[in-house]
Write a structure and sequence with these properties.
The structure is a single chain. The protein folds into two domains: 76 residues, OB fold (Dihydrolipoamide Acetyltransferase, E2P) (Beta Barrel), CATH 2.40.50; 157 residues, de novo design (two linked rop proteins) (Up-down Bundle). Helix content is 35%, strand content 21%. A five-stranded mixed beta barrel has the order 1-2-3-5-4. It has a two-stranded antiparallel ribbon with strand order 6-7. A hairpin with a 3-residue loop joins strand 1 and strand 2. Helix 3 runs antiparallel to helix 4. The radius of gyration is 20 Å and the shape is elongated. The termini are far apart. The C terminus is likely disordered.
């Protein structure tokens, strides 16, 4: 079976035997890759640190029947050290790679690799508030998967307007006349922030107020976990009530 190369983001690792690890990666060309990295847990291993979660690398692999085998690793962006040194950054990055892992479970979906790379590099570089980067990543990753929230038109009636009632199960905002009882109403500033996070409008996102961030974060977390039909464990370690 042939060897191949791909640019990858390391999503997670698992121990295998006494010296090996199974590395789960998101490849730029191949999508989800699971491979054995032999001997990486030995102290003399030269590639173990290059295959930690959040690292971005150029990897050569030998294609196997069930698991591929890592042959060579060249680091492209060494992000793990910066990310794990800050707990808030680490928990956000963990939620991002966990979401990427789940969204690409059933094949390669174009667009996920560059989005994840961009998000992790922005985190490591402290380009914006870590939780804003996470929420933007989650919304944009869901949009790639076909679940972009509707924020301008009622998803039930098609009526355009400044709707503030948001129904997670319906996929976006709804008009007051058809909003189910108990539907949360968001501040207009929270809707504006959600729009900015979906489109990557960082001028608006960075200028957002704490109350808008809190409301948007609650919607993003609920919306993500509804569409993935499972919880994102890493989100449980993030203080989603912080002021940002």
């Amino acid at each position: 079976m042939p060897s191949y190369r791909d640019d990858v983001v390391v999503l997670r690792t698992h121990r295998l035997g006494e010296a090996d690890r199974i590395i789960t990666m998101l490849g730029k060309s191949r999508g989800k890759i699971r491979a054995v990295a032999k001997g990486v847990r030995k102290t003399q291993s030269s590639i173990g640190s290059r295959l930690e979660p959040f690292q971005i690398a150029d990897v050569q692999l030998y294609e196997g029947r069930n698991l591929d085998t890592v042959q060579q690793v060249e680091t492209k962006f060494a992000l793990a050290k910066q990310i794990v040194a800050d707990y808030g950054m680490y928990t956000c990055a963990s939620a991002m790679v966990e979401t990427a892992d789940k969204l690409t479970e059933h094949g390669n979906v174009a667009g996920h690799y560059p989005l994840l790379v961009g998000g992790l590099r922005a985190l490591a570089g402290r380009d914006h508030d870590a939780e804003l980067i996470l929420d933007s990543y989650l919304l944009r990753a869901l949009a790639i998967a076909g679940w972009s929230p509707e924020l301008d038109t009622c998803v039930m009636t098609g009526e355009a307007g400044d709707h503030t009632a948001f129904v997670v199960s319906a996929g976006g905002v709804v008009a007051d006349s058809v909003a189910p009882p108990g539907t949360p109403r968001l501040r207009p500033e929270s809707i504006a922030l959600l729009r900015a996070l979906v489109t990557g409008n960082w001028e608006v996102a960075d200028a957002s107020e704490p109350d808008a961030r809190r409301e948007a974060r609650g919607i993003v977390a609920a919306y993500t976990q509804f569409h993935l039909e499972r919880s994102i464990r890493s989100l449980g370690h993030i203080d989603r009530t912080s002021s940002g």
